[in-house]
Each structure stands twice: as structure tokens, then as C-alpha cells.
Write a structure and sequence with these properties.
alpha+beta; five-stranded antiparallel sheet; 27% strand; globular
């Protein structure tokens, strides 16, 4: 490829420039600071049922005495389960029904795992999680209730992939305890995209 045929560094596709407004907001926290609490306080029985299919037998997750001897303040919650206990309930008494269609592939009308809070971005038809990282600040123990706080925009990278044209969007939020502290920080990257129409 000669210098004449190589694209200029500042040359960008029109679809990529559609993401400029969101890119300009990197560093913004789109939340109001409210904690979205998990459905329930973490109980020893829930920990046991979580670990049962994994056949994980470490006594710190079952026996309070063993956990305290190991330096924990109570029965230790497995870190792989923290996100599960930080999810708000799908439905509460008094709320409208979740499914308003009897079709086989019907989707719930709302879900706490789908971020429905608005933010400026181009309209897209699909998305998926590309990666997720957690940084743990301290162990969580049975009896605590944890929730999610914050929605910080870390980065926006427009990119065309084999599934379409869109952007990798990196978000960060805290997992907090009802004890008043941050127990972990979650960073996840989603790819929001539109499929490329194939020529007929």
C-alpha cells in the first residue's frame, strides 16, 4: 500500500463519528448516587445452595467457627457470587407482571440486569458483554446486604467487528455493603452495535 492509498489518521467513517457525543462524556457518572440494593440479605443457606452444585467444600463458607479461625468476621461469601446477591429483585408484590406475552421467546418487560437508564448514544439493535473485571476490597460475610452504586463511563471505542458496527463501552460501578463501605469495584465492557446490511 502506498502513502497515496493509505487513509489519513484523521479520517473516520461517518458511523464512528455518531459516537462523538458519548466519547465527550467519558469520566461522567450517569447515576444519581442511589444504591440499588440486592433482593435479599445474604444468608448461610443461600451460600450453601450456591456452592452445592460446585461441590466446593471449603469450611469458611459453611462453618462460622472455621471462618473466624481463618480471620473472617463470619461465614465468608464466595466472591464469584457477589454479583448475584447485588441484583435487585425481578419483581415485587404490587408491581405489574413481568411477561405480557405468551410467546415462546417472550422477554420480560423489565429487568434489573438491563441498564435502562438513558445516556446519549446512537440507536443500536444489539449488545453483549465483552468483558467484566472485579477488584475486591474486602471479604463479604453472611448477614450483609450488598448493592450497586454509581455508573461511571470509563471509555468509548467505536469499532467495526464481524457482528456489525458499534462501540465498546466501558462502565464502572461500586458494590457496597449495608455496613457503609465499598466491598468491590466492577468494570464491564459492552459492545453495542448495528448489524451491517449485506448487499442484495
Amino acid at each position: 500500500m502506498t502513502n497515496e492509498t493509505m487513509p489519513r489518521i484523521d479520517e473516520r467513517a461517518d458511523w464512528a463519528s455518531d459516537w462523538d457525543e458519548l466519547i465527550s462524556l467519558v469520566g461522567t457518572d450517569f447515576s444519581d448516587g442511589t444504591v440499588r440494593w440486592g433482593a435479599d440479605r445474604i444468608e448461610p443457606g443461600a451460600i450453601r445452595r450456591y456452592l452445592e452444585p460446585l461441590e466446593l467444600a471449603d469450611p469458611i463458607h459453611y462453618d462460622e467457627g472455621a471462618a473466624r479461625r481463618a480471620g473472617y468476621s463470619g461465614i465468608a461469601v464466595p466472591v464469584t457470587g457477589l454479583l448475584s446477591w447485588a441484583i435487585p429483585p425481578m419483581w415485587r408484590p404490587g408491581e405489574a407482571q413481568l411477561f405480557d406475552s405468551a410467546e415462546a421467546d417472550a422477554q420480560p418487560t423489565r429487568s434489573p440486569i438491563n441498564n435502562e437508564e438513558p445516556y446519549p448514544k446512537p440507536d443500536t439493535t444489539g449488545f453483549f458483554t465483552a468483558s467484566m473485571d472485579l477488584s475486591f476490597h474486602r471479604p463479604v460475610v453472611a448477614g450483609e446486604r450488598i448493592g450497586q452504586r454509581g455508573r461511571r463511563l470509563v471509555s468509548v471505542t467505536p469499532k467495526q467487528t464481524s457482528v456489525g458496527r458499534g462501540a465498546f463501552i466501558s462502565w464502572e460501578y461500586d458494590l457496597v455493603s449495608d455496613r457503609g463501605d465499598v466491598v468491590a469495584v466492577v468494570r464491564n465492557v459492552v459492545y453495542a452495535y448495528n448489524r451491517i446490511e449485506e448487499p442484495q
